Amino acid sequence: MSSTAGGSQPYYFVPHPSRHPFFAAFGLFFVIFGAAAWINSIGWGKWTFFFGLVWLLVVLFQWFSDAVGESEAGQYSRRVDHSYRWSMSWFIFSEVMFFGAFFTALWWMRAHSVPALGGLENSILWPDFKAAWPSTAPGITASPAGTVEPFQTMGPLWLPTINTALLLSSGVTLTIAHHLLRVGKRAPTIAFMWLTVLLGFTFLCVQGYEYYHAYTDLNLKLTSGAYGSTFFMLTGFHGFHVLVGMLMLFFITLRLMRGHFTPDRHFGFEGAAWYWHFVDVVWLGLYVLVYWM
């Protein structure tokens, strides 16, 4: 999806009728249907989910390949370029609202829900309850009835701090790659892009080890009260976004190696870079609010 300088292209590009939206919806149906069955312990749910997921990924690959071919054929004018930019901007805005909801839920529990549970009106039901955050043991915030196993919270040292350094470094290498692309230096651009992808992959590996450490050493699980659920929801969804962003950068790097993009025509690169910088900013907020506070 490269931008073009305009000129000979039509005022607006209208694609031919496509099978991709229908088949993408078909795959999504099986993803949701299978996931619903899987979480309800229905045996075939897992396989239905993975069938829909593979189907959807194949359709998306074909769909994006068509869009790349149209772009490289010079069919996209400046108006299409603006359309892509606005579309990516609104998509990132929707992601801001998505993470904003989770951050707000974390704040609400810490500032309102937990103190309210420790109020005078609840003292008769739970006389030994202590409205403290984070919740680390039965009888405090996690479980007044003792139904949640004791656990330890995840501190900022050292795995989250290492991941912070990795993501910030990847933002720097990506910015350098963008600058090199704009001045026409393709070979070093590709090198810095591969370094960015490697840093993103390393982040995911460190986060995977962090989850292993949480489960085995800290007994911190998704079921560990309000703290456990918000911790894994925030870090898990962010990790998924890192995976998506890393795949974006990976395919952009492959396109660079095939000769796609020029100093004046590279919105596909820019869109992926916007997304990656957004992921970096979200992590900084997560690092402070979840690990330090």
Describe this structure in words.
This protein has 293 residues and is mostly helical. It folds into 2 domains: 1-76, Orthogonal Bundle (Helix Hairpins), CATH 1.10.287; 78-292, Cytochrome c oxidase, subunit III, four-helix bundle (Four Helix Bundle (Hemerythrin (Met), subunit A)). It is 69% helix and 0% strand. The chain has 7 helices and no strands. Helix 4 packs antiparallel against helix 7 and helix 6 runs antiparallel to helix 7. It is globular and about 70 Å long. The model is unreliable at 1-7 (pLDDT under 50).
Give the SSE map:
Elements lengths: L19 H20 L5 H28 L5 H40 L41 H24 L3 H31 L8 H33 L9 H26 L1
Helix pairs in contact: 1-2, 3-6, 3-7, 4-5, 4-7, 5-6, 6-7
Strand content: under 5%
Largest sheet: none
The helix/strand order is HHHHHHH
Shape: globular
The radius of gyration is 23 Å
Spans of at least 5 consecutive residues whose pLDDT stays below 50 are: 1-7
Number of helices: 7
Name of the CATH homologous superfamily of the largest domain:
Cytochrome c oxidase, subunit III, four-helix bundle
Estimated structural class:
mainly alpha
Number of domains: 2
Mean pLDDT: 85
Q: What name does CATH use for the topology of the largest domain?
A: Four Helix Bundle (Hemerythrin (Met), subunit A)
DSSP helix fraction:
55-70%
Briefly, what CATH class of the largest domain? Mainly Alpha
Give the N-terminus to C-terminus distance in angstroms.
41 Å
DSSP, total strands: 0
What is the correct CATH architecture of the largest domain? Up-down Bundle
